[in-house]
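As a warm-up, study this chain.
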Amino acid sequence: MNELTILLVEDNPDDEELTLRALRQNNIMNMVDVARDGAEALDYLFCQGAHKARDPSQKPAIVMLDLKLPKIDGLEVLRRIRADERTRLMPVVILTSSKEEQDLLKSYSLGANSYIRKPVDFNQFVTTVGHLGLYWLVLNEPPPK
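Now compare it with the structure written out below.
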């Protein structure tokens, strides 16, 4: 069985590093692939552009998706994930600093599995990411292939 991979879609290098540190501190040693904008995330997921050589059968176990992204924003990435048969059942967790109610409502209306606001406090962030990893990588039962 292949190791479960996480796709982290995050444009802020500090938030990327904090997320990676939080995963390690929670002993979540799964491979983490990082896309730094919405276009790169879509290229990764659909094996196109710079990621055309990626094996399409190796789908991430979870996508941790920021909303405020360059090129293509997170809501559009989510819309495209849900619109495509190959990815529509893929777990997508919105991991964002946005406190806008419209982002929350739109994320769920587009099919987000969860919406997590990034805590400002690092210890809270470590705990939050640990819970996310435990749930989505260990406890959650994904749909059959």
